[in-house]
Write a structure and sequence with these properties.
The chain is α/β, with parallel strands linked by helices. The protein has a domain of 146 residues: Glutaredoxin. The protein contains 5 helices and 7 strands, in the order αβββαβαβαββα. It has a 7-stranded mixed beta sheet, sandwiched between helices. Strand 6 and strand 7 form a beta hairpin. The chain is globular, with a radius of gyration of 21 Å.
Length: 255
Amino acid sequence: MNSSSLRYWLALLVLGGAFFGWSIVHANRPAAGVPYEPRNEVSLGAKPNWPPLTDFLLVDQDGKPFDSATLRGHVWVASFFFTNCPAVCWRLNQAIAALRETLGASDVRFVSITCDPDNDTPEKLGPYAKHFQAEPGRWTFLTGEISTLRDVAKQFLVALDKGSHSSRVFVVDRGGKVRAMFSLTEPGEADRLQKLLAKLEAEPAPPSAPAAPPSSGSLSPSADSGATAGRVPSGSSGEEVPSEAAAPKLDQEDK
C-alpha cells in the first residue's frame, strides 16, 4: 500500500470515528425541553420518579434553625455545594446568582446545602452568601450534621458525602414535589430553568396540609444561637417513601 492510500484510509478512519462519537452523544441527549444530563455521571433517567419530599431541619448562614416547611406554597430550587470547592460549586453559585438577578421580583426561593459541615459553619457560610449577594429569605445556605445532609440528598435521589455531591439543581413546585433537574452550568440550561420556574409560579398553590412532625434527634450546636443541625421526619403524605435499598440508584459526583 503506497503512502497516498495509507493517508486516505487513515483519514477515513478518523472521520468515521468522529461521526460515530457525535452520533452517540446526540442519541443520548434527551428531547428538547428535557434537562440535559452529562453522560459521565450516573443517570437518573429523563424522568426520575422522585419520592414526595418530607420536611427537614437544618441551620442557615445566620446560625438560625431552618425548617423546610417554610418553603410550602413557594416554588424553590435546591442545590448542593461546599465552600472549599474551587471550581464547579463556584460556577454553579455564580449561575444561581445570575439567575436570581434575572428573575427580579420573582418569589422563587433558592436553597443551597453544604456537603462539608465540619468546615461550613454559619460563620463560614455567612460571608460566602454575601459574596454571591444572596438576599436573605430568598437564597439560603444550609448546614447540619452529615447524616442529616445525606438524608436530605437522598430525597432528591442523589448521594452526598464530605466533599462529594451532585452538581445538578432540583426544581420543587408549590406542593413540595420535585419536578425537574438541570445542569445549570451547561449552555442553555438557565433559559430552560427560567421557563419552567415561570410555569410553576403560574400554577395555583395546593391546599395547605398539616405539618409532619420531625423525627427525634439532636441538633448540633451553632456558634451564634445554640441551634442544632436538622432532622428528617418520616413521610407525611401517606405514600411510602422508598428505602435506600429500594430507591433508584443514587447519583454520585465527586468534586
